[in-house]
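My main concern about presentation is that the manuscript never shows what a single data entry looks like. Each protein is reduced to its one-letter sequence and a matching series of backbone shape codes. For the editor and my fellow referees, an illustration may be useful. For illustration, here is how one protein appears when written out as sequence plus structure tokens:
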Amino acid sequence: MTQKQDSSKKSGEEILQTIEPKGIADESMRRTVEILLNLIEQLQAEVKELRAENQQLKDENNRLKGEQGKPDIKANKKELTNNHSS
């Protein structure tokens, strides 16, 4: 996935979080929007799971062919400390 796709994905998720169905006056329209938002969230979760499974299968396939899978790179986490003594 390119950075552009990744940033658009994040903005899409952020946009979903900003939608407030309570502001919709029409009750049936509000309920429809709530149902659609729930469906979108479920589908996003399913896509995330399927992408992870797909990567695992690609890695396994590469290992069976004698190649290496995608490395499991963890993000660097800085430890937050309030002790600044020298």
User: Anything to note?
Assistant: Residues 27-64 form the longest helix (38 residues).
